[in-house]
Amino acid sequence: MNKTDLYKVVNKKAQLSVRKSAEIVNLIFDAISSELESGNHVRLSGFGTFLIKRRKARKGKNLFTGEQMVIPEKNVVVFKPANALRVKVA
Fold first, then answer.
1. Which residues, including other chains, have CB under 8 Å from residue 14's CB and lie 6 or more apart?
2. HSE value, Cβ hemisphere, 13 Å, CA-based, for 16
3. What pTM does this model have?
4. How far is it, in rounded angstroms, from Cα 82 to Cα 41?
5. Which pLDDT value is given to residue 6?
6. Would the N or C end of the chain have less CB density within 10 A of its end CB?
7. How many CB atoms lie under 10 A from the CB of residue 83?
8. What is the SS3 assignment for 7?
9. Collapsing DSSP states into helix, strand and coil, what is residue 85?
10. Domain 41-90 classified CATH 1.10.287.3510?
11. How far is CA 53 from CA 12, 43, 47, 67, in A?
12. Smallest Cα–Cα separation from 11: which of 2, 22, 3, 1?
């Protein structure tokens, strides 16, 4: 499923126009992104939690040259599904 498919699902279930559905989906994504940028986590009950984790620097290899290199530390977004979601998917 991509964003357009999600717009269409919201369109059908909420009986909104595709344009209005797109606005709603984009507002939700923007809100989640803003919270993560601020360093907060986003917990959606029954669905899961989005959070930022710091990935430590590590050794790696340039696949083209074979040269050893250090991959710098960085922040990554992590999603932890809620138990209810895990049960549905299992």
1. 21, 24
2. 16
3. 0.81
4. 14
5. 94
6. C
7. 9
8. helix
9. helix
10. no
11. 36, 15, 19, 28
12. 22
Q: How close are the terminal C-alpha atoms of the chain, in Å?
A: 19
**Residue listed under structure tokens 């919201």:** 10
Structure tokens at 46: 């029954």
The first and second tokens of residue 15, run together, are: 């009986």
Chain centre distance of CA 10: 18
CA 33-38-40 angle, 5° bins: 85
Q: What one-letter code names the amino acid at 61?
A: K
Which of 49, 57, 58 is CA-nearest to residue 78? 49
Residue 83, both tokens: 């138990």
Model confidence pLDDT, tens digit, residues 23-77: 999 999 999 999 999 999 999 999 999 999 999 999 999 999 999 999 999 999 9
Give which of 71, 67, 40 is closest to 55, Cα–Cα.
71
